[in-house]
# Entry
Amino acid sequence: MGRPPCCEKTGVKKGPWTPEEDIILVSYIQEHGPGNWRNVPSNTGLLRCSKSCRLRWTNYLRPGIKRGNFTEHEEKMIIHLQALLGNRWAAIASYLPQRTDNDIKNYWNTHLKKKLNSKKVEGHDDGIHDEKNQQEGNSTSSSSSQSKISKGQWERRLQTDIHTAKQALCEALSLDSAPNNKNNPTPEEQQPAVPTSTTYASSAENIAKLLQNWMKNSPKSSSSNSSKITQVSLNNNLSMGAASSSSPSEGTVNVTAGQGLDSLFSFNSSNNNSEVSVDEGGNFSTPENNNAGIFQVESKPILPDFKADNNGNFQEERKQNVDTQVPLTLLEKWLLDDANAQAEQEDHLMGIALSETADLF
DNA sequence: AACGCGAGCAACCGCTCCTCC
DNA sequence: GGGAGGAGCGGTTGCTCGCGT
# Structure
């Protein structure tokens, strides 16, 4: 006997998500944790497919997501990891936990591909050329040049490619603040954008910005008499924003734009009346039971999922993606072991790899 | 001011793999 | 063990916005 279908095909809403939908989804996940996506639409009343809910959460609402411009450091990591892993965006994203696979994929397709192509045109195409042929499944485009390469040359080249890929991952791992990384990243690249832990505030910030934009564009925004306070009426009893927000039982969402919202995010669910406040430092507390703690997202290498119990305790759940987790872990071990044995050689080669990378920009 | 075009991005689609019954 | 459904992933689409003509 099979399971019921994840969602009805009829009556499913498509297209962009509204702030109301976002908040409903966030409040539900705060309460029940991510997962069980099949039940999300029915339990929340959202007219969305479970897939759509999951996507919205993972790509936009999930804690710790950084949006906006990619740093040069991130660009380099993406290029390196793409060369190493191919178009396995989820695997690449696991090394950039603040970026979603969708974001990285979009960035690659819109920015980096062009960058690399332009470099290729300029004649810096040795390694990149092959990478692109590989990633685009274009086995014939390099045939003319490959035909000139003898088997021995091809093998040497393959070895070089493998070594370069290893260098790339080594560098990527060392540049990044992975837990097992003991190298010292440059202060410039230790930007706050890549902390070892993140807080829910960033997610609240996402929603705050969203609501700000929405209210800015909404003709009803005239109801707000303060530039700093925005009120949105919702169907479910949900409050978000400053501690002085209006009664949650009135089904009102208060969003204090700017500092207020950045520093505090709380919600109040009608179901269990448990309020969770998350401050800037990732501390959360529930006034009801005085449960308090640090809400952290471990950054590497696999994205954690969270579950919240009724007491407001968030528990981390590892994704069980064997495909991404195991091979990368083995790769890391392999690289780290190998790195010790070849430390001197790698210093030299790392210089080459880095200078090649620098050429890309 | 109107139109066309391209870039960027959010979301959808379809496939594969895994889990559950 | 097999089938059905769930979850996740990568590719693609289509909408929006900015810029140039």
About this structure: Chain A has a mean pLDDT of 53. Residues 1-3, 14-17, 49, 51-52, 55-56, 59-60, 102-103, 106-107, 109-111, 320-323 of chain A lie near DNA strand B (CB under 10 Å from a C1'). Residues 96 and 103 of chain A are 11 Å apart (CA to CA). The first strand of chain A starts at residue 229 and ends at 233.
